[in-house]
Amino acid sequence: MKPGIRRWSGRLRDSFSPASLRTQLLSRSLIILAVLLLLIGTVQFIVMKNFLYSNQAETLQSQIRGLPKELLGENSWIFRNRFKNEPGTALVPPSASPPYDTSEAGERRPFLFLPDTSIALINAENELINPSFNESGLPAPQLTSEQYSKIRKEWDTRNIRAYQIAHDQNGTEQLLVFRPADGPRGWDLLIQMGISTAPLKAIAWRQLTIFISLSLIALGAGLMLYLSILRKTLTPLNQMVKTVEELDAGKLDRRFDTSLGQSEIDRLAESFNGMLERLEASFENEREAREHMQRFIADASHELRTPLTSIHGFLEVLLRGAAEKPEQLNAALGSMLGEAKRMKKLVEDLLILAKLDRTPAVSRSETSLDTLIEEMEPQLRMLAGERKVIFSLAPHIRAMTDRDGIKQVILNLFHNAVQHTDPGLGTIHISLSVLAGNWAELRVKDNGPGITPEHLPHVFERFYRSEVSRVRNRQGGAGLGLAITQSIVEVHGGQIEVDSTPGDGAAFIVKLPILAADAPSH
Hints:
Blueprint: H1 3-15, H2 21-65, H3 69-72, H4 77-80, E1 100-102, E2 108-110, E3 117-122, E4 128-129, H5 145-157, E5 164-167, E6 173-180, E7 190-196, H6 198-233, H7 235-246, H8 263-319, H9 326-358, E8 365-368, H10 369-384, E9 388-393, E10 398-401, H11 403-419, E11 427-435, E12 439-446, H12 481-491, E13 495-500, E14 506-513
Parallel strand pairs: 9-11
Antiparallel strand pairs: 1-2, 3-4, 3-7, 5-6, 6-7, 8-10, 11-12, 12-14, 13-14
């Protein structure tokens, strides 16, 4: 089979599979339409049958009112024989006129030609009298005495039912109507006239058959029309499916059209676009994190390899005989101790960063920031050596902080300033002030060489160094101090930034939230 034919056959099979949305919409719509048509047909059949029965009942009532008075008058043959069990034994009165019939005994009886019709009389005792003057009709059905009594009461109260349905002795279903006989004493007699319901049912069934045929034609036409309309309606959804099939990790910049003219599809497209934006951001963050991790591992490996290489070199020197010379031995041991301290500091910094990344929450207590810095002043001046240190601290600034964490922030920033200033001419300025909006600003400024603009965005990255060479001096750190500082500040809900001009030193600015009572009125 050719690929094109196989592809189209697969699409056709998928389109009309039970799990297909098109098949489900089509089948459910047709089922609903068929049920509605069936309901309409049933209601139409019942209404049509009731209409035909009511109309026929009115016709029978008109026929009863049009019966000749010679049959129902006070001197009529029927009236004079209303108490006899076998009608037809009395003679027709001389005043009677046709229609009548002559019996074998020479008696003259009335005769009516009413095909498919029954007629009978019910006397006061609710007994059925079949006058036999409609020999061409049907036998009259006989109801119970209770039913005849109920019909008489209905005529007395004028709450009359239009008709009743009953079966005769041959099993033929008839529609019956009742009416009292006319005359002063005619209310003793109740006229019953019936007609077969078969012709009426035939008309109703014929109408139902026509309706079912038209309904089937409408369902077929609706199927053809609905297929084309449904195919056009589902076109935007098929386009979305095609677009999704083309997506992969490298094509997350694709977006769906959100103006297809169908509100549900447009909302779905907007949701997909939002999901794609989040996925694209997640993949980008993952890529950056992977690159950052690779760079982090490479930098950490380099920082660890440098002291290990030094220690390894010193050990080789000692093994070659330097251990027997006290001066060389002491120098080698001192160098190895320095490298060991450097590795220990690096490992401790890595552990601190891992802890901050894993559990960023810290235990806080109310802290006076100005008092904390004053307590650290002797230690800071000792670290500064011959450098000039200036303190400008606003009093009574309290915040909810981790004292040890804030101390480490100050020490890291101060140590960074010490590393980048001249030992004899360097100046470090530490200031603490209050900003509007319940914020405190801690600023550590030096008069060192400053930071070039291309390095400013990266100063807080782990293991980042602004020097071109990867070689560090003994006083230089591993490039983790500022990264640790940033993590601690962010854990406290604060911000840290750097302001520097090459040749004019650098200023690291830390902003921390403080208690509302410490905010001055401006």
